[in-house]
Design a protein that fits this description.
33% of the residues lie in helices and 23% in strands. The chain is α/β, with parallel strands linked by helices. Strands 1, 12, 13, 14, 15, 16, 17, 18 and 19 form a nine-stranded mixed sheet that branches. It has an eight-stranded parallel β-barrel with strand order 2-3-4-5-6-9-10-11, surrounded by five helices. Bound molecules: pyridoxal-5'-phosphate.
């Protein structure tokens, strides 16, 4: 059965249960009582809420589905069938080729060095018309030519990536992620000219992902000064980037026509949609609603994806140990990368062990009542990485499991 995310009327009629944890988690627990752990769950009402809230925040700009943040094929398909979503941003070339069997607009969001994938792409007219790959240097063009010469291939669709980080004055320095060497409008236009001069390539798009705006939490309850600092950084960076991106897009458009200019992410839907030079926004994490996104001022996603682990032993009266738990998120290591214990409330990890590979002791008042066989509910920090630990998600709607959806991993597709 295919899930539907475009249930307009329903979102209004079904109460946002997740706002009341005392209702939401026990209901989820009861609905899935017959299933074994580790158990991944998607709450349909919460998914629908997130899908529509992201469209609202994108304010008329189409959302390109960032598949790395989902990694469940049927959820991606459901989004593409929902108003406001168009095309996907894949994370590897093999994934893009797999998706392109069905999806006609696939951009690979990161450069590739996959020789076999490039040859497949370049020798299949249909794939070559559907898949666009990311480039930011002449060396990458040479690499592609080395895999398959221009005379032997279809023209390869390219997207030019502009670096979106903010080069602040010292002592702040570079704020953002190190992505592309192309930073200025001059860099961009020079590279665009080189692409259009060379046979076997068609420049169709530009992308500039503002990680330092989309990815930084800016409303951490216990850290008011930090949050104010983050909001200040975001404001400076938005104003610097909107000028620079506009100039770069105009310069490249003077060289060739562009089908799209991609920007942003879940955390920056408001500011990216306000940037006139951007035609679409890539986003995905906000759909599952990892707990990272609990700390943003502009929005609050519902906890649509969660997972349950079973208590298997009690080393002490006040300690309940669950099997598993070490599903940590990528990025700078820190407490915020660990799964959050969502239910029962009042449980904490033990500082000397934290989330373990095979077991996670939990302490706190609620641990006293827990017994082997009871379940504890968690939320992942991010979104798509959770799918790499599960073969499938159970979908819960109105207190019932209505479907089981395989993850990429469950389909034998561990792309990265
Ligand atoms: C190129 C690109 N665009 C957009 C995003 C935003 O994705 P999400 O909305 O899932 O955070 C990312 C995330 O890393 C990205 O790398």
């Amino acid at each position: 059965m295919a899930i539907a995310l475009s249930a307009q009327g329903r979102a209004a009629s079904s109460p946002a249960r997740w706002l009341t944890p005392e209702l939401f988690w026990p209901e989820l627990d009861a609905s899935t009582a017959a299933l074994e752990t580790p158990l991944g769950v998607l709450h349909l009402g919460a998914l629908q809420f997130n899908a529509h809230d992201m469209v609202r925040r994108a304010a008329g700009k189409p959302i390109r589905v960032a598949t790395k943040s989902i990694r469940v094929r049927s959820v991606i398909d459901a989004l593409l069938a929902t108003d406001g979503y168009r095309g996907v941003l894949a994370f590897t070339l093999p994934e893009a080729l797999w998706l392109a069997e069905e999806v006609d607009d696939v951009v690979v969001g990161y450069p590739t060095a996959d020789r076999a994938g490039l040859i497949r792409l370049a020798t299949d007219e249909r794939l070559a018309s559907r898949v666009t790959i990311m480039v930011d240097s002449v060396e990458q063009l040479d690499f592609i030519d080395g895999c398959i010469p221009p005379g032997d291939r279809e023209s390869i669709r390219l997207c030019l990536e502009l670096d979106a980080s903010w080069r602040a004055a010292p002592p702040l320095g570079n704020i953002g992620v190190l992505r592309s060497p192309i930073f200025t409008a001059d860099d961009a236009v020079r590279f665009a000219r080189e692409i259009t001069r060379r046979p076997g390539f068609t420049l169709v798009g530009m992308m500039a992902y503002e990680a330092q705006i989309a990815g930084l939490v800016d409303d951490v309850g216990s850290r008011a000064a930090y949050s104010a600092g983050m909001r200040w950084i975001k404001r400076q960076s938005v104003s610097e980037l909107s000028e620079r991106r506009k100039a770069a897009v105009e310069a490249v458009r003077s060289v060739c026509e562009l089908e799209f200019v991609n920007g942003g992410g879940t955390g920056s839907l408001e500011s990216t949609s306000a940037d006139d030079s951007v035609t679409e926004i890539a986003a995905g994490s906000g759909l599952f609603g990892g707990h990272l996104f609990d700390n943003y001022r502009e929005f609050r996603p519902a906890p649509a994806a969660s997972f349950a682990l079973s208590v298997v032993r009690k080393p002490r009266e006040d300690t309940a140990t669950v099997l598993g738990g070490g599903w940590t998120a990528s990025g700078p290591p820190g407490r915020d990368r660990l799964p959050q214990v969502a239910w029962p409330q009042g449980l904490d990890m033990v500082p000397r062990e934290m989330a373990g590979e095979v077991q996670t002791p939990l302490v706190g008042k609620a641990a006293v009542r827990l017994r082997p066989g009871d379940r504890v509910w968690f939320r992942h920090t991010k979104s798509g990485e959770l799918s790499e630990h599960l073969n499938a998600f159970a979908v819960v709607d109105d207190g019932t499991v209505i479907d089981t959806l395989p993850t990429y991993r469950g389909e034998g597709k561990a792309f990265l």
